[in-house]
Every structure is written in C-alpha cells, then in structure tokens.
Amino acid sequence: MNESEHIEKKQKQKRNTFSPPRGGPRKKSLRRSFEERLRAVKLHLEEGFTQELVAREMGITVAGLQQWLNRYRQHGEEGLKDRERKPTAKKLPEAVRDKIVELKEEEPTRGVKKISQLLRRIFDAAALASPSQSGPSRGAKGRPQEEAVIGWGRLAPTNPAVVSRPSPLQRHRCVA
User: Fold this and answer.
1) Is this structure's pTM higher than 0.85?
2) What mean pLDDT, rounded, does the chain reach?
3) Percentage helix, strand, coil for the chain under 3-state DSSP, each rounded to 5
4) Burial label, 36 (beta-carbon count in 10 A; 0-12, 13-18, 19+)
5) What is the second-level CATH architecture of the domain 31-85?
6) What's the gap between Cα 62 and its chain centre?
7) Alpha-carbon distance 58 to 7, whole Å?
8) Label partner for 12 (CA 20 to 30 A): which of 25, 57, 93, 104?
9) Do 103 and 120 meet the contact criterion of CB atoms below 8 Å apart?
10) Plot region of 24 (φ>0 → left; ψ -120 to 50 → alpha; else → beta)
11) Can you give the C-alpha Rg of the chain in angstroms?
C-alpha cells in the first residue's frame, strides 16, 4: 500500500466516525447516596487523597466534591444527608391533558401542531365566553392592555376581545 492510499484510507475512517459535540457529551448526573458522599469526603480529608483523584474515582466533578466538602465543613455529616426536595408542579392542567388525549383519540393522525391549534381555539373561546376577571383585559405583566388598530401586525394584542375594528375609511384616512 503506497502512501496516498494510506492517507485516503485514514480520511475515509475519519469521515465514518462519530464525534461528540464540542465540550464532549453531556453526562447524566447520578444522585449519590449519603454513604458515597461521606466516603468521598473522608477520602480527601482523612486519607489525604487529592480532590481530583477522589472525584475521578467516584465519577463526579471536582466542583461537586467541593460542594460536599463545604457542606460537611459547615454542617458535619448532617450536611451530606439527602435534603427534602420540593414537589414539582404538574406541567399541564388536568383539563388540558384530558382534552389532548380526547383529540388524539378522535383523530390519531393529528400531530402536535394541529392539536395545539385546536387547543388554542377551544380554550381561548372558553376564556372569552366566561370572563374570569372584571375590568380591562390585562397583559403579561398585569398592566391593562391598550386597544389596538387592526393592521399593526405583530404589535397588535393577541386577545381579540380588546381589538377595536375601525372601518376601512377610518383606517386609511389621512389627517392633515
């Protein structure tokens, strides 16, 4: 095999290999037990192993080990115990979730885009039919929305109840 064939073969191998994104693949963090955290801290503090070595052996980052060390120094072994986590809120309200299932069962070929369009129509219509607040419509920051003129494109508010519809003559009339 001459040198040009060898180079061509190497380039072909390079093209066929997978390379992870820059910075390497993202590692999924595993929750470590209290005993594992305590062992890692004691390996560093009592046995004298470096943070880098302990972190590599435990399969964690040096920053993670440093957090454990700081918690151990501040609170002792109690600082390494599992802390209670706040319960996570449900992502979707029950009514929305049920409606998604109903729409998908009605027509299994409906995709995400179509279902979201239908949901917007259904729930926007329900919100307009039964106003839950009195007074002017409020925007995202809680401030009253101003009425808009049709034809403003993206600048017009999305709530159709607030949009005033001027006649074509009013819209295009020039003011001198």
Assistant:
1) no
2) 74
3) 50, 0, 45
4) middle
5) Orthogonal Bundle (1.10)
6) 26
7) 41
8) 25
9) no
10) left
11) 31
